[in-house]
Structures are given as C-alpha cells and as structure tokens.
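TL;DR need structure tokens for one chain.
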Amino acid sequence: MGTVTLGVSIAVPEPYGSRLQELRAGFGDAAAYGIPTHVTLVPPTEVEAERLPEIRAHLSEVAAAFGAFGMRLAGTGTFRPLSPVVFVQIVEGGTGCTRLQGLVRDPDGPLNRELAFPYHPHVTVAHGISEEAMDLAFATLADYEAQWTCAGFALYEQGSDGVWRKLREYPFGSGPVTGVPAQLGSQVDEAAGAAGAGAAETAVRRS
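>> reply
TL;DR here they are.
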C-alpha cells in the first residue's frame, strides 16, 4: 500500500486561522496556503498506509479521554538562529498542548517518534524566508492576540503537491468539535464532516 505522510495538530479557529495564513503568505512564505494555521502535536511523519486504521483508533482513544482547555496567543517569538522560524507565542494552553502531544506520541502507540528539538507549542507565521521578511513578521505580529477554547484536534495528510489536507477530526470527550475549523488550503474529507464555526471567543490585533 505504500506510505503516507501524516501530521496531527490543533487548528487555529476562524477567522484567526485564515488571517494568519494570509499574513504568512504576505511575508513571502510560499508554503502558506498549503499549511492551515495550527499548533503541531505530531510533526510530518511517514508511516505505512496500512497503519491508518490503527492510528485513527489511537487518536480516537486519546481524544475521548481528554478535556477542552483554553488557548491564548500573544506576541511573537523565534527559533532563530537554530531554526529559521518566526511564530506567535502560546501564553495560555501550552501545558495542555504538551500533555496532549505526549499522549498522541505515546511510546507504545503507532505515532511514537523522536523529535528533532524539544517540544515547544507555537503557531508558525514565517518559515525559511529571508531574514528581512522574518524580521517583518516578528514586528508585524508583535501585538497580536487571540483567544479560544480548544475542543479537539485533527489528523492531516500531506499530498504529493505539498498541501496538507484534513483526514479526520477528533473531538475531546463526547461533545462536538467546535475548535477544529476548515481553513484555506485545508480540505476536509466527507467522513469527517465540516467543523462548527464560532469556536473562538475573542481576538484582537492591535497596531
């Protein structure tokens, strides 16, 4: 059956996700519209396609036992010079993201893998572009703020065209997903259904 490249992440809800995606494209990041705005739980990982049912079952189990938690973004940060990335910082919800990614990457589970760097939840807004453009991204979003309730996560697959597409959503507990919206560049498969809008509570971008 071959292999597929998967990722697991928390989507930044609308209208904030698409706005950050547009800004990322405006900074000159050519990959922006192929990557829905997100907080990574599992980075791009190549697996055997035949393991998808096992992976989906594992993610369903993790989600069912997890509860919703608050997320708040504020200001920017960077991994430079170690890595050419500028990001919006997570100032509330980082502990929940860290706990969740640990469960998703359970050493005994199908998504166990080593990370290139220690886990640091964040929302990338520029990657691999010129230093000047990354400086612009850092300054432009220095006063950015957003807040919502995270109520689930999603499994994505990267296509041969480099675009990440949503395969399935995983709501926490037994309630409906309200925090994993479709975004520009994110195509939801029919089995998953469309996510509910309006998960975000408040967000303000100050200039």
